[in-house]
Specification:
Oligomer: single chain
Largest sheet: 2 strands, parallel
Strand order of the largest sheet: 1-2
Helix content: 55-70%
Distance between the termini: 40 Å
Radius of gyration: 25 Å
Strand content: under 5%
Order of helices and strands: HHHHHHEHHHHHHHHHHEHH
Number of helices: 18
Number of domains: 2
Number of strands: 2
């Protein structure tokens, strides 16, 4: 398996792009690599070493540059080793050492600031559409479903079917979430706490907490069925607290990433005094260099998780946008055909009952995507990151396929 830094990959891609005759622009490379609207910004970030493309993107970039993915990866790996050797050759004179350390310090600050900016952009885009879908689809469906008496509760996965949390199939996890939502709807219709106030972030937090922290027929917590992509820790950390306190899953907590990616800058604060000093002795220089190297290592260690986040959030946002447009329209159409209140399950007719079940499934998919534990990507160990990436990809693929087959 090739191992390369984001910086090395960016340099190799830029050199190949500029070596074309005539030189290819970032806009042209983005277009040929199928990056879509605003793709030149993505290419710029890759070339500056802020983001490293995933396998799918890397293959498209290689094709656009008339290379194979293997060639591109090998060149990036070779460049990574070359850069490491260069940085290992420290200048002899103290003055030159000071200048080099200052430059590296500035690069770290800039990279961390850019990471925060990228995270902010993706997080705010997701938050915006999530909140719309939460209010106009999820909570609207809950409100309508509460008005239907006698609706059957979906069967929950049995103990033998669920297995261990990390091995629970995606379809079964989402099925469990849909069952939890139906259970909470029944409780709300009967006057439970979750139904005290329908609509808005606080009600959503209370309702989803009731759904996720409810118990399955096996006695296992529904929240435990969410696997590595949505852990109990996420429920407590995201949204400024537990979901029961009004949090909103990934939407509520994604901006915590801004602080996390900027952590290396905070680690350098104590050493900042030495950066601005006009003159430093060898001891002071060694101290700052140690801080700089530690910060560089922290950024490098979180790079793959950050890259995964950059891939995941736009996919999750696009799925939410689809529900915003098509899901809310389908729900309003279903609502227009419902009989007047009081409504009983039998009065909905076969088509109305099937539509209820389908919207329950969409709601489960929405909740599963909302609960993806994105912040954990930045601190995950390589093996854990691969498992999380796989689980997240499966969740997004299944949710996308299921939602689009329904609405």
């Amino acid at each position: 398996m090739n191992e390369f830094s984001a910086e090395a990959m960016g340099l190799v891609i830029r050199e190949h792009r500029q070596a074309r005759r005539p030189a290819m622009t970032q806009e042209e490379l983005a277009e040929q690599a199928d990056y879509g609207k605003g793709g030149a910004v993505s290419i710029s970030r890759i070339e500056r070493g802020l983001v490293s493309p995933g396998q799918h993107r890397l293959a498209a970039l290689a094709l656009a540059l008339r290379l194979t993915p293997g060639q591109l990866e090998q060149e990036a790996e070779d460049r990574t080793r070359s850069l490491a050797r260069q940085r290992g050759q420290r200048p002899v004179k103290l003055r030159d050492q000071v200048a080099e350390t200052k430059r590296r310090h500035a690069e770290i600050n800039e990279k961390a600031a850019q990471r925060s900016k990228i995270t902010q952009e993706h997080g705010e885009a997701f938050n915006r559409v999530h909140d719309v879908v939460r209010d106009e689809f999820f909570m609207r469906f809950v409100e309508l479903a509460r008005s239907v008496s006698g609706a059957p509760e979906p069967e929950r996965p049995s103990e033998g079917e669920t297995g261990s949390p990390g091995e629970t199939p995606t379809a079964m996890r989402i099925e469990a979430m849909s069952a939890g939502i139906a259970h909470a709807i029944r409780g709300a219709a009967a006057g439970g706490a979750a139904g005290a106030a329908v609509g808005g972030a606080a009600a959503y937090g209370a309702f989803t907490a009731a759904a996720l922290f409810g118990t399955a027929s096996t006695g296992a917590a529904i929240s435990a069925l969410s696997g590595v992509a949505a852990t109990n820790a996420a429920l407590a950390l995201l949204g400024g607290g537990a979901l029961a306190a009004g949090g909103a899953g990934m939407a509520g907590g994604i901006l915590l990433l801004t602080g996390m990616v900027a952590a290396p800058v905070a680690a350098l604060a104590a050493a900042g005094f030495y950066v601005v000093k006009q003159r430093r002795n060898k001891k002071e220089e060694a101290r700052l260099r140690t801080e700089v190297e530690a910060a560089e290592a922290a950024l490098d260690q979180s790079q793959k998780g950050f890259d995964t986040m950059v891939e995941v959030l736009p996919r999750a946002t696009a799925l939410m946008e689809y529900v915003e447009v098509h899901g809310t329209h389908a729900l309003e159409k279903w609502w227009a055909g419902l009989p007047p209140e009081p409504r009983r399950w039998d009065s909905l007719g076969h088509e109305g009952r099937e539509r209820y079940k389908e919207f329950l499934t969409v709601a489960g998919c929405f909740l599963a995507v909302s609960m993806i534990n994105v912040p954990a990507l930045l601190t995950a160990e390589p093996d854990d990151l691969r498992e999380m990436d796989k689980a997240i990809d499966e969740t997004l693929r299944y949710a996308d396929r299921t939602i689009k087959s329904i609405v």
